[in-house]
Amino acid sequence: MKAPALTGRFQSLDLLSVLVAVLRPDGTVQFANAALEDTVGLSRRTLEGMDFAQFFTLPSLLQNALAGSWGEDFAAVRFDGCLKRLHQESVLVHVSVVPADHPGEVLVELWPLEQQARQDREERLRDQAQAHKELIRNLAHEIKNPLGGIRGAAQLLEMELDSPEMTEYTQVIIHEADRLQSLVDRLLAPHRHPHLVGDVNIHEVCERVRSLVLVEYPQGLSIEQDYDISIPEFRGDRAQLIQAVLNVVQNAAQALVPQMAQSNARIMLRTRVARQVTLGRERYKLALELHVIDNGPGVPDAIRERIFYPLVSGRDGGSGLGLTLAQTFVQRHHGMIECDSAPGRTDFRILIPLP
Fold first, then answer.
1. For the chain, which residues make up each domain, given as ranges?
2. For 57, which of 173, 208, 274, 307 is 20 to 30 Å away at the CA?
3. Measured between alpha carbons, how far is residue 245 from residues 187, 325, 354 in Å?
4. Is pTM, for the whole model, over 0.70?
5. Segment holding 22, helix H or strand E
6. What is the tens place of the pLDDT at every residue in 200-253?
7. What is the topology classification, in CATH, of domain 2-113?
8. Which domain of life is it from (predicted)?
């Protein structure tokens, strides 16, 4: 009955996104949390009793740190090392070794440097995107009222004009006012629609999007499916998710227009379950991972870091709102959209927590 008690004492460590190992005096693993299991690719049961130093490319780094900790030379020892992983490349980590509260135990915390940089970048992008959305929303409200006045004045002026040549000018004013009104409505769209929650099947969403895009681009484009049908339904706003995925897939299709002429434009919709995912500094055991992958030219370097900002577009005539709205709708589901792009392969990855 001792093992369950031991796990119970450490079970709160499974809630952390940081990798944690509790070591015995001989350097063997007494406990490994879920994040460490996932990173090294070995189960907790397998890790227990193993010499933890062997998981470092330079075992002496941890051995020296443990010696300093046991000898009480330092309250905490920190170093950067390289952690080995099963069937994967090693990962750079920042390591902290501190004596645990319980006598005869040492707590080893490891922060993957790449993951930490990614989390910092995600949080920075979230904050920037939120600031941009607030700015755009305020500007849209300021523009809306005078725009209606301009359109109304042009209509009244048109009624007083006898010359057809002059009414052409008022028609230009009315047409441009309508165009700007449409843009303002799109800017305000995320703030107008309530979040209607129900059961969502992500594959029904994908198939709906697939049929819509193939109607719009019937020639030269193939949209392939690679679905994990075991993914469960989850609670969400089906309409918003359809719009989010549609915007991403349409963005990919628009980038592929030149390749459609050669009939080699391809988009892949791939669903998977991701485990131990950190979103917005919160750790989730499971998350939906939807990839929209195309074989287009890639996102231009000049806008790669800003593609989710309002009014940023990589093509002539684009409004720069499609990906902004997609990110907003996904964030309403506590998720986010990431982009990894290179010539010949662009991957938009939509992550949404699962129950």
1. 2-113, 118-192, 198-353
2. 274
3. 18, 10, 17
4. no
5. strand 19-23
6. 999 999 999 999 999 999 999 999 999 999 999 999 999 889 989 999 999 999
7. Beta-Lactamase (3.30.450)
8. Bacteria
